[in-house]
């Protein structure tokens, strides 16, 4: 990070406000609804035109929207990121080392956050649509703080990774798109004063909240707080572009309005307000049950001798009305409500994802049936999956380019090991247990039709194919050596004696030849051992008669 150029602070602030003004309907019409659905914030809404006692209300919010989002995120969380580095049309010379370095950066970045970066990216793609990633150089972070504790902390992180990746909430992200990518990006977020002081050496009150504006354009960076005078940073960033990556899941560039460019997972359900209908339905049913309490069904009895007054009796949780009366159908809930509930579930599944594909309500099914449902549930994941893959590819390329261009020395990858024409392939394939078994069977059946590297990368999801091949060869050599030892009884006997602490066989002659066994019948010859199951017969001379043997 450099700060050697005066910038027009007022113009950058004014331009940022113009960019953010275009996202007003996105924030109010979409993101506010998504937040309400995910956090189930409709718990105080009562159905209209109702005269029910306040104590009888049982307001119930449907969890279906949140469950659908969480189910999709869990499917994505079963995935692993696989990286292939290429130089031109061939695999890069240090492809395996580059892959390990990028995965280490990603892992270390997650260790200093409340959740894994991959999990935050998955939730962002499913809930909002955009995936926004930001790469920060540890050297840049150290340059803007004089706090000795922060400096020591950054030194510790630098020993493991030269960069940290952050996932930005799309509600706080305001990108300005040009013809060939981002022209600028505004990150507007709330921050506690204590964290602001730690990050920027600001003179903020530790217990108060501050609104931070972090603005990047193609050349400059401006950071300031709405509640403070002056700027936290204002100057040229010295980078080749905006270090923020934004990719849309289900998005389209056919429309100019930001709120119409995002066809996210909850869009149809939010715009049709199906979640509101579910809440009203569940509240009506729950309130009807709550009003009735624990009283059982009603039976009207019309005896021959009608009593002078109506008598009510209770037995076994049933109300008996003994009087001159007519039987009334005393249903707690109209059956039409359940038909409405089934219709809501069907329409909701068409708008998002059928709950059965996430494993809900399939307790009586077979495992193979659940496997098929889970595989079918991956279809709606395509948009989110591709957005995550493109986002991580772009942020990884940004990191490697900075390491090479700025000559950033680190413990993971040397700048000269990054090729000039580097290209990355990043894949994120949801990987369930039944998928592993199926892919292993397919890989085995292919035989020599395809290369082992292709099987590792596309079926078995093994990114470091060269390392796996080395490990396979090593294990095969160990098995061959052990097999040879087991098949040689002399060597096996010596090993057993050594383990049991028994004396080993007599030493070999100095000539190196095998010892010659004593002649048959000669001195030192061992008598033949009887075979198991047979009695040993006395030795006889075939030329002697039976009387001579006596």
Structure description:
The chain is an alpha+beta fold and 550 residues long. It has 18 helices and 14 strands. The protein has helices at 9-21, 24-38, 64-77, 95-111, 117-127, 138-143, 148-158, 193-200, 267-272, 274-292, 336-351, 367-376, 382-406, 433-446, 452-458, 465-487, 489-500, 546-549, and strands at residues 80-87, 90-91, 130-137, 163-168, 173-178, 181-192, 209-217, 220-225, 233-236, 244-248, 298-301, 311-315, 318-322, 422-429. Strands 5-6-7-8-9 form a five-stranded antiparallel beta sheet. Strand 5 and strand 6 form a beta hairpin. It starts with 8 loop residues before the first helix and ends with a helix. Mean pLDDT is 79; it is low at 364-374, 521-527 and 529-550.
Estimate the helix proportion, in percent. 40-55%
Largest sheet: number of strands, sense, barrel closure: 5 strands, antiparallel
Low-confidence stretches: 364-374, 521-527, 529-550
- Report the count of strand segments: 14
- Strand-residue proportion: 15-25%
Question: How large is the radius of gyration?
Answer: 38 Å
Main β-sheet, spatial strand arrangement: 5-6-7-8-9
Secondary-structure content class: alpha+beta
- C-alpha geometry: extended
Q: Tell me the span between the first and last alpha carbons.
A: 113 Å
| Averaged pLDDT | 79
Number of helices: 18
Would you kindly provide a brief summary of this structure?
The protein is of the alpha+beta class. The chain has helices at residues 9-21, 24-38, 64-77, 95-111, 117-127, 138-143, 148-158, 193-200, 267-272, 274-292, 336-351, 367-376, 382-406, 433-446, 452-458, 465-487, 489-500, 546-549; strands at residues 80-87, 90-91, 130-137, 163-168, 173-178, 181-192, 209-217, 220-225, 233-236, 244-248, 298-301, 311-315, 318-322, 422-429.
């Amino acid at each position: 990070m450099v700060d050697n150029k005066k910038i027009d602070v007022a113009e950058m602030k004014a331009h940022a406000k113009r960019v953010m003004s275009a996202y007003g309907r996105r924030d109010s019409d979409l993101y506010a609804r998504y937040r309400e659905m995910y956090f189930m914030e409709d718990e105080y809404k009562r159905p209209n035109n109702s005269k029910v006692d306040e104590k009888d209300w049982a307001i119930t919010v449907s969890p279906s929207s949140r469950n659908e989002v969480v189910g999709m995120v869990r499917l994505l969380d079963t995935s692993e990121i696989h990286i292939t580095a290429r130089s031109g049309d061939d695999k890069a010379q240090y492809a395996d080392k580059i892959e390990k370095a990028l995965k280490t950066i990603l892992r270390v970045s997650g260790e200093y956050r409340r959740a894994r970066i991959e999990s935050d990216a998955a939730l962002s793609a499913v809930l909002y649509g955009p995936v926004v990633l930001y790469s920060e150089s540890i050297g840049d972070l150290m340059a803007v703080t004089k706090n000795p504790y922060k400096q020591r902390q950054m030194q510790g992180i630098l020993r493991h990774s030269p960069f940290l990746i952050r996932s930005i909430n799309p509600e706080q992200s305001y990108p300005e798109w040009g013809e060939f990518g981002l022209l600028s990006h505004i990150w507007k977020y709330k921050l506690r004063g204590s964290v602001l002081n730690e990050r920027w050496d600001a003179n903020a009150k530790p217990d108060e909240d501050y609104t931070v504006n972090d603005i990047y354009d193609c050349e400059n960076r401006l950071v300031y707080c709405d509640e403070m005078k002056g700027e936290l940073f204002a100057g040229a960033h010295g980078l080749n572009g905006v270090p923020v990556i934004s990719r849309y899941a289900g998005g389209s560039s056919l429309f100019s309005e930001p709120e119409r460019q995002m066809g996210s997972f909850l869009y149809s359900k939010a715009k049709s307000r199906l979640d509101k209908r579910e809440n009203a339905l569940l509240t009506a049913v729950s309130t009807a049950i709550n009003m009735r309490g624990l009283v059982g069904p009603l039976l009207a009895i019309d005896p021959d001798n009608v009593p002078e007054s109506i008598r009510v009796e209770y037995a076994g949780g049933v109300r008996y009305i003994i009087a001159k009366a007519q039987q009334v159908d005393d249903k707690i809930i109209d059956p039409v409500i359940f038909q409405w509930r089934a219709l809501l579930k069907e329409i909701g599944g068409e708008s998002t994802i059928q709950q059965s594909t996430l494993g809900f309500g399939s307790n009586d099914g077979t495992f193979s049936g659940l496997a098929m449902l889970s595989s079918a549930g991956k279809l709606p994941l395509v948009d989110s999956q591709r957005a995550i893959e493109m986002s991580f590819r772009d942020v990884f390329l940004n990191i490697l380019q900075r390491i090479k261009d700025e000559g950033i020395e680190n413990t993971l990858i040397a700048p000269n090991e990054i090729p000039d024409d580097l290209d990355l392939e990043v894949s994120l394939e949801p990987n369930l247990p039944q998928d592993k078994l199926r892919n292993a069977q397919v890989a085995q059946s292919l035989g020599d039709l395809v290369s082992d590297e292709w099987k590792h990368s596309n079926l078995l999801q093994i990114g470091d194919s060269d390392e796996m091949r080395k490990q396979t060869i090593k294990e095969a050599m160990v098995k061959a050596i052990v097999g040879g030892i087991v098949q040689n009884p002399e060597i096996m006997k010596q090993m057993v004696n050594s383990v049991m602490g028994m004396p080993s066989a007599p030493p070999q002659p100095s000539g190196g030849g095998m010892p010659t066994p004593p002649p048959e019948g000669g001195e030192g010859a061992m008598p033949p051992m009887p075979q198991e199951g047979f009695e040993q017969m006395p030795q006889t001379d075939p030329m002697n008669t039976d009387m001579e043997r006596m």
